[in-house]
Design a protein that fits this description.
The protein has about 110 residues and is α+β, with helices and mostly antiparallel strands. The protein has a single domain, classed as Translation Initiation Factor IF3 (2-Layer Sandwich). It has helices at about 30-45, 50-70, and strands at about 1-5, 10-30, 75-90, 90-105. Strands 1-3-4-2 form a four-stranded mixed β-sheet. β3 (about 75-90) and β4 form a beta hairpin. The two termini are about 15 Å apart. The mean pLDDT is about 85.
């Protein structure tokens, strides 16, 4: 599955559009990681625990979007975008969406 943020894929033409597909996940913070992050916040620098959590969340959301597209018969997703939102004080949602398409080589 080809997933791009652009509206086209070089060397390919879109022959069919299946519409919007999406994948999301809601993740809660972990108390142990919060303690480490709090300590890291005092001295500065990247909070690797949260960076890893967000990366895992993005990957899971992308996997779910790809599954949605495959169910429709697509072999690519164009115009892919990400958004995040806070669900509650301890949880956030990662949403990825795009347009599922069928492409052929030109």
């Amino acid at each position: 599955m080809i997933v791009v943020s652009s509206s086209s894929i070089p060397g390919h033409k879109i022959v069919k559009s299946f519409g919007i597909v999406r994948g999301n996940t809601v993740r809660a913070r972990h108390l142990g990681k919060d303690i480490l992050a709090g300590l890291k916040g005092m001295v500065g620098g990247e909070i690797e625990e949260y960076t890893k959590l967000m990366a895992e969340s993005r990957d899971q959301s992308i996997d779910r979007m790809i599954s949605n597209a495959e169910e429709l018969g697509a072999n690519a997703i164009v115009d892919t975008r990400f958004t995040t939102s806070m669900i509650m004080s301890l949880a956030a949602e990662i949403l990825v969406f795009g347009t599922a398409v069928l492409i052929e080589k030109e």
